[in-house]
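Risk register update: the risk of archive-format incompatibility is retired. Evidence:
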Amino acid sequence: MKRSRAKLVAAAGIFLVGMVPAVTAEAVAPDNDLIENATVIGSLPFTETIDTTDAHADGPRVCGDSGSVFYRFKPSVDARLQVDTLGSDYDTTLQVLRGPRRRLEEVACRDDSGFGLQTSVRFNARAGQRYFIVAGLCCGNGRDGGGQLTIRVQEVPLDPLTVDLVLTGGTIDAISGELFLEGTLDCSHAADVSLFALVRQRHGDFVASSANERTIHCDGSGLAPWSVGEWLSDVGISYVAGDARVRFDVFAFDGAGHEVAVEQSQVITLVVV
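Archived output:
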């Protein structure tokens, strides 16, 4: 009897251990979540990509500060500057403040610019003046944090924006029939590029066709590959291996007021994979 009782106690112990709830890791806010911990910008151009998912609504409420992170800098010479969040994956806001923390003045405040949900502001920075940049989450989304933030501070680009988008081919998923387009993209400086494509393919008496739009971020660092998918024929006729005609419209915006619009049409060879 003692042996049986011992087995029961041991089994109960194992059961109780299994019932202990798992420990959940606490959310960690970014290092520059508070204005007193603002990231120092030592030189320009400056670019950083950080995760602001767990950022809080702290700091001055001049232009909204949900999910905000802070940057500060003091230029040594007068400069005409641009701050932008092109390439971020959530709806951003930007504000620029100047002066001591107890008496901050608004220099610039903006939500969306160009197209999409990213933001850019331009302002004249004075030598020796301290500035704070606040990147936040827009518009009362019911949460504090943002997402993957890319922020860039640079002198306003004076050269015209140039965009070279090349369509190199397309593939068809053998099971789903989904069409993927791919190519290369090069920009003279950082920009968001909106690509609208219309694909038509005739086989026999039937025509498969679809249209779709995507935004691609171009960081201005040189030729980069891109691919976009989720094209399915709108008329219930599947794409097949062979030639198809693609007409695409390209619109690019660099946050500095420079825009480029291009229309192209070409024949590509679709491959089933």
